Records
---
Amino acid sequence: MLEQSIQELESGSQRRIQSASSLEELEAVRVEVLGRKGALDQFFKQMGKLPPDERSRAGKILNSCKQALEGALEARKQAFADAALRAKLDREWLDLTLPAPGPRRGHLHPITRIQRELEELFASLGFTVLDGPEVETEWRNFDALNIPLDHPARDMQDTFWLDGGNLLRTHTSPVQVRGMERLGPPLRMIAPGRVFRNESVDASHEHTFYQLEGMMIDRDVSVAHLLYFMKTLLTAIFKRDVTVRLRPGYFPFVEPGFELDIKCLICGGAGCPVCKQGGWVELLPCGLVNPNVLRMSGIDPEEWNGFAFGLGLTRLVMMRYAIDDIRQLQGGDVRFLEQF
Ligand code: PHE
């Protein structure tokens, strides 16, 4: 009798377990059948009243029934969990063909960009790009450029002097001297680089800025050659025809020396705040190389002559991008740099 009831309980419970449609239903079956005071428990209690030989037989049947139902419950629970996971994976899909976000790319500083553009331009005109050290000798920065001992540029105010008599170069012109020493005539060279002056810093003055020096030495070089190269240079920079004029300017290493102005690109010469109403903007100092300079670097001025110019790269970048404060260029402020 008992045996049959147990079998009925087991098969009935199995059906309920297999047809359960939720974890709650499963749990209800578990409590009812396997829980404390559940149906199986009742059978275990009845079993205690049986004679010993029947008791052990009933015990075996009860235990195997219990194990079978526990196993079935566990398997159904697992099936529910698997189905839930599958449903979740079906909902959230991953497109493995989508391009990944690339690494953030930096970009070149505007001064570096202009410098490289000009290097390419001059290389195409047969000029060699030379490099010089930022720590220079007094000889190459001043003496060999015919800058007399009492010239104001040597003043403690303008030059960062270093221990041992060397200095931080105040312009890129000492690379002219290096070019003449190393390569000799005929010579076409440019030298971009960083220069230093002991200035108090404000919106238009920095202690550190960039220049691009140029020098050409050959036979019968004239102001016409100088003008040709300067106009080519400026047209490349500003991407349009520019009108230039030369004014006399004094630099000990050139004779004659000039200040080259361009007709203001903003107002076309009519006068505006950029050209301070003058219609012209001072852009680059230049001139024919002073014979003394050639001689001091071992070049015979009877046979050779040349021109030289010094372009302010920092100034140029400021004009090209309408930057009104020079301190921004070296300030390292990412918000400023990200605009380029
Ligand atoms: N070296 C000069 C300066 O920094 C500029 C210059 C270069 C002038 C070459 C004439 C020729 O002021």
---
Amino acid sequence: MTLDDAMNFAVAQGWQKFRGEQVWRWVHGKGVRSFDEMTNLAKPVRAELANIASIGGLTVGEIQTSKDGTRRLRLVTREGRSIETVLIPDGERKEKLTQCISSQIGCAVDCQFCATAKLGLERNLDAGEIVDQVYLARRLLAEVDPERRITNIVYMGMGEPLHNYDNLIKSLSILTDDKGLGLSQRRITVSTSGLVPKLERLGNETVRPNLAVSLNAPNDTVRDMIMPINRKWNIGKLLAALKAYPLEQRRRITFEYVLLAGVNDSITDAGQLAKLLRGVKCKVNVIPYNPHPEAAYTRPAKHVIDAFQNECKRLGLPTYLRTPRGDDIDAACGQLANRVDGSPIVPLRIRKGPPPAPPVD
Ligand code: SAH
Ligand code: SF4
């Protein structure tokens, strides 16, 4: 529930509106997980609440810690499905800690290089399940590393956030509410494979997070091949929507570019990319492909990665290298697939017939 939902809920129970706010602050501000902890509510009210409501949609399945300090949390939904969230401490700045959260169980977009794609889509997470990933991680941190706080949130875990639009918006408004966690929208980034109509809608919302777009190719020929969604919304349509996106001052769009050996990593590709993005307020995050058994791609050699990045920079495109974090525990970009100890991925839905057409919205 958003704060407004909680107040309406209170009124529907015949209570004062303010009681809804009290409960909401306990859950989203203080992070309590039982009504009994709500000490400013009378005991009978707490008991009644426990009868008609519940807090938190997820439970902690298991926690793995990478040798670089990244933690992967497997969280379990009410029906016993698993999703994943990753806590990534900044290597240099101790005060920065980014949490990568999931928006769906699986994903329907079918990017050829992504492990999550191999699961297929089971369902959308509801807004409660999206924010609960943050609250559970916050609890864990308080236990294991009380000095650290979650400072940044990225919607870059399992799933395509813009395919789960309403819950995305609801979760953003909850996480940024001053009466709850009060995260600044500047510290939240939503990453998308490029659902053009939803990008247009996002530009009109009151909460506007940073935008990351998985471009991954310098032209439609390559993008069609590795991201089927491009056959529906090609690079031209995508860039037109991004150019029209009302960016706030001093903000720029991040383009993610997964480098796949021999596919999109040549000097010519770098040149095409720089030309394509000329005039767009942006930066590029180059992500060397993180290998997993379900895709046949390989990571380019170090000198190829460096040459690609240098060529982009030489042509005036701000380009950064995203060093893989947590790859020893399958927690790096594109590796989230509920895998246990290197076991193969079990699809959530068995696919019959040819691969699905790109999603329509
Ligand atoms: N669905 C959203 C957010 C989740 S994917 C999106 O696609 O943007 C997060 C990022 O991981 C994307 O930029 C994607 O291109 C990248 N990614 C997927 N598989 C990868 C892999 N095997 N290695 C490196 N990055 C990968
Ligand atoms: Fe889905 Fe993103 Fe993976 Fe593509 S890269 S399949 S959109 S999670």
---
Amino acid sequence: MTAPAQEPHTTPSTGTHQQVGGAAHAPETVLSASGLRKTYLLGRVKVPVLHGVDFSLSRGEFVAVLGSSGSGKSTLLHLLGGLDSPDTHNGGTISYRGKNLRSLSSHALDRYRAREAGFVFQFYHLLPELTVLQNVAVAAMVRWGLGYYREKSRVRSQTRALLEEVGLGHRLEHLPSELSGGERQRVAIARSLINNPSLLLADEPTGNLDRATGDTILDMLCRLRAARALSMVVVTHDPHTAARADRVVRLVDGRVTDAQPL
Ligand code: ADP
Ligand code: MG
């Protein structure tokens, strides 16, 4: 998937759209979902979670998805990140830069997951037996496949630089078990960005952290987003986190109920 040649200029820190040559450009929608439905099967029992979610994210925008526990926030984020699929029948569509994820070949979907959509899991999901450096490099291995060995020295120096950028330059050889929660989340964020995605999808990135640590993680996410012109979706049940977003949507009873600036 390649970006269109002409794209509107976006101010990453605010998500607002500048005028170019005197004409206002409409925001480019990078990610959208329409009528999303997701039903889990627990044995033979159907557990409907999303009942027709509509969602859109403009280029450079930071959208917070608020919702109570169990409202389907993680489910929605997994679908947006191509980690799971909507219902086969009547499940709705997800489009990234105009392409329906469902129409992608499995190779193209792999590329979307590996290169376009960085994902930060709520519980970090670091590999316990790998060091900090290896945990981040492994995402680059997935991206490059066998080509990784050709790229290895460049990727390793990028990995080091990124880990320094997230404040972990002094922890490269540590194991996840030797890190605090905030440090683990920094590793997870570095891993999500090592392949230079244009989207960052974060699942309650501050949910397991104390307020002060959560604030530094959120500051860091906002800084990284501005520096890399990322479009970002953060799901949270914390209004304090949502207050940092350009736009907030709420997930209630399996639907997005409103969209409003805070
Ligand atoms: P949230 O992230 O908002 O807390 P989730 O998306 O994790 O909510 O879950 C929404 C609902 O779907 C919950 O009721 C949860 O129990 C159910 N659920 C999530 N994953 C599965 C699964 N793999 N199988 C069955 N039910 C699930
Ligand atoms: Mg969740």
---
Amino acid sequence: MDTQITNLLEKQVKRRRTFAIISHPDAGKTTLTEKLLLYGGAIHLAGAVRAKGTQRNTTSDWMEIEKQRGISISTSVLQFEYNGYVINLLDTPGHKDFSEDTYRTLMAADAAVMLIDGAKGVEPQTRKLFEVCRMRGIPIFTFINKMDRPSREPLDLLEDLEKVLGIRSCPMTWPIGSGDRFRGVYDRQSKEIMFFHADASAAKGKKLEAKMTGVDDPEFLKSLAGTRNDEYEAKELYDQFKSELELLEMAGDDFDWDRVLRGELTPVFFGSAANNFGVERFLNRFIELAPMPAPRLDSHKTVNAEVDPITPKFTAFVFKIQANMDPSHRDRVAFIRVCSGKFERNMMVKHARLDKDIKLAMPVSFFGQERVVVEEAWPGDVIGLVDTSSTLRIGDTLTAIKGLEYSGVPSFSPEHFAGVIILDPMKRKQLQKGLEQLSEEGVVQIYRQRGFGDKDPVLGAVGALQFEVLQHRLRTEYAVEVRIEKLPYAHARWVVGENLDPDFFERREDSRCLLDRDDLPVLLFRSDWALRWATENYKNLQFLTTAPRKKT
Ligand code: G4P
């Protein structure tokens, strides 16, 4: 029986790829997601991503709700099959702000696709998300987008990856020109050229067939002349392409799968998502190179240090909570990532933090507004559990293995802070409930002032727009009107170490000492300078950007 289930698990695990796309707003994440779904034949799901063109009518309700709530009612995961693989594309929130939710999603991914706008290079949000991937040590694949627009020199872009992010790169494809001189990309492995045709039908979502040839094909130089038939331009593009290629062969990093898996080397692809160009090639190489669901660390180390996904017993952890997904039901959904074993509806598992058995009776997956009951799932998959009684928290472990607990999902250091002022003091209870639930979702973090109990908390957020989302959701979901007063702090650090004197930091003009929800001390600093001063003068203390794990 065990061998049978192990064989089944092995088969299912091997064909799964679970990843997230990280990017700065406007780099083209929604567009790329739509194209990827298209290859999976899941275009009917595209409404879950964004209403586009003719699809707009069918998805307008969805858009309206999303707009009104001011947040993305996230589908959390888009699952599709492609070439025998099951792809779980973890959806990070769609709106332009940055939230903790985005960070947490990366905790459930086995790989990340870093999407970069070729005209802009590495941008701030990409950098922040990259840091989280690096902390987790997951492999990162890079797609440089919008090559149909004038872009920066490709070698410059690679230098950006190294200088700003500190990661070496290995181009798998290489572009020939950009903007209106964009002729296509060269596949360094197959040594084929894919010619670019700006094709209106591609933007509508049809698969684009590319014409292939080789660099030494006499037709190659000729074809670089483009629609203007400019021989001079063709020669220029050809010479530049050849010299760049030579430079890459001589001085570039060789492809090394182990370094990719360790997150030290990123394979780079070029293309144009809007034109569906370079996407198919990218997807094919990605599924071949990206890792299958990886073993996860058991923090109690009761079983093994790591739990292999093909372990027959089910384990999973909660990486995201979303309250009031359906405002008419006031429900709460906990999203879990399956780490090992097979998930079956109605199975009984141990809730590790509460040391209590629970039945997983209401597993669902979401396609836009639609809910589908999930009967079974495998390692790497993500499912939503309807959790009306609020028994699940982010980081919780659900397990059929006795004594196992995963190391949880850290809280990330906010960069924006505010106080919250209630306009109708009679509604204090609702406010408290709203703050509690919305902070569990990661909309904001809540810090208590020492000696104040739950009164007048300080709110922290990784993106400033989160305060507006909070205000909006308190009004619409909890009927509480509040005013948000921004506070002049720029950094928060969890502090670990002997002899922390909270009063000292409280007395200083440029810092505060608060408590997080687990009563761990958190210092707020007004400026980079104040933070630096503290770290240099208190070498006995550790200043952490993620919350240390709570002792249980
Ligand atoms: P995001 O989710 O990362 O924020 O980006 P999104 O896909 O919404 O893309 C942002 C803008 O960039 C969109 O234009 C989109 O069409 C465009 N874009 C994406 N990929 C490419 C590409 O390969 N080439 C070019 N030229 N543009 C690209 P928009 O004007 O904001 O929206 P829309 O009117 O096109 O829908």
